[in-house]
Amino acid sequence: MKTTAAVVHEAGKPLEIEELDLGGPQEGEILVRYTHAGLCHSDLHVMDGEIPGWLPMVLGHEGAGVVEDVGPGVTRVAPGDRFVCSFIPNCGTCHWCATGQQAICDMGANTMRGFLPGEHWPLSGPAGRYGAMCMLGTFSQYGVIHQASAVKIDNDLPLDVAALVGCGVPTGWGSAVNAADVRAGQTVVVYGIGGIGINAVQGARFAGAKYVIAVDPTPFKREKALELGATHATGDADEARRLAVELTRGVGADKAIVTVGVTNSEVVDQAFNAIGKAGTVVLTSMGGGFHDRTIQLPAQVATLWKKTIKGSLFGDCNPTTDIPRLLGLYQSGDLKLDELITRTYTLEQVNQGYEDLVAGRNVRGLIVHKHD
To answer: Which of 147, 239, 248, 343 gives the lowest tally of CB atoms within 10 Å of its CB?
Structure first.
């Protein structure tokens, strides 16, 4: 069958809209019709060449839709089911899945290759075979993905907001609730209020933080943070540190969560200095290159003050249980999702969507796929 998709052919170049061929699902795979796709910063990292991947590649890893058909051996979903994409697949049987750490499932090692080793490549076109971001490629009308990348959801859930729970929402929420382990009465600083940071704010507030300090240079994003749970918002990291010290009578923040567009040594220093003794810094955003040394901190301070620096992927979530759980919190009114969608775009407007992201005009932009 044919599908229209947004493709990156060369780092530093805009996405191109192409008509591609899509093969049918094979063992363990499903044919899906994407209805919505979130514009996440990670796709921009691939466009800019900061994250290497198989090119050409259909971008998009945050999305939702409907299962159209299934291949042999599929047991998790059936035709007609609504689903949310899990940007890290979860096989359920590797060491990490078996120990409750689906966010680092061994299948995730192939997310930037496009498809699993030894498997067929469903997408092809004028440039040969095409990869799919996180083995999903949600910037396409249709896709063939592994069942381990799909989480079935209730039919009464709106697919536009459900799409956000495949990446940005659990990554941010889980960074606060799981990785930072925010407790009632604590003080939390969140650096960067985009699609991930805004949900770290929501998670910290839901977990019972007394003070949530949002740090972002964009006034619009600071306003959104205050709307969705932050108690304070500032555009200056030094001011955030002073606030944390003042509000805690000299103790400092308990937790600092870094969700900026690109992690560098400066923001890590700022977070490290904002936390007090026994505090924790959670690094959720990506750094520059894979081998770049972006953390340089005084070891004696870390030792003597018992400070912790830790990384977090997917908010340390287990998608098969946490995606439905977060959607349940949306249904109960405890998690705001509709308020996250700033603008919607057609697939043909995807480059404009990323221009808006870079310019700070969006908390989350959303592609709405058109189907004849």
So the answer is: 239
